[in-house]
Amino acid sequence: MNVKTYTLRESEIDRRWYLVDATGQTLGRLATRVARVLEGKDKPTYTPNLDSGDHVIILNAALIAVTRDKLESKVYVRHSGYPAGLKQETLGHLLQRRPEEVIRRAVKGMLPRNRLGAQQLRKLKIYAGSDHPHQAQQPEQLA
Fold first, then answer.
1. Which of 41, 70, 115, 129 could form a disulfide with 74 if both were Cys (CB 3.0 to 4.6 A apart)?
2. Rounded CA gap, 27 and 15, in Å?
3. Confidence at residue 5, expressed as pLDDT on a 0 to 100 scale
4. Residues 127, 70: Cα–Cα separation, whole Å
């Protein structure tokens, strides 16, 4: 019995463009679906050391839904490194100010923490409204 493991090459990667409408969808559930497509885990040719994922366009990011009281209770925290440099912002405030950032942070948390994850995150395009400049790529709806 001589079975060889198939290894995907960079030249064999087939990239597609997918379109997702975030209207009324739950933030975490949408982020997990998008992260799987960006990593390429939905393909039979998934290779952990290569970026074999597809491009994803998310529309209507401002109309995303969250469950329970997360708009007031979920807090994004960062620190500048200086004394008294702690900055806090609730999900509701960030959703009003920059709705694209809410989805980007949720998806980024589900990707690998290395160069490969950064490369996969660059294939994510998020828009607060319903129009996008990627018609030439002929995106198809993500099932």
1. 70
2. 25
3. 86
4. 22
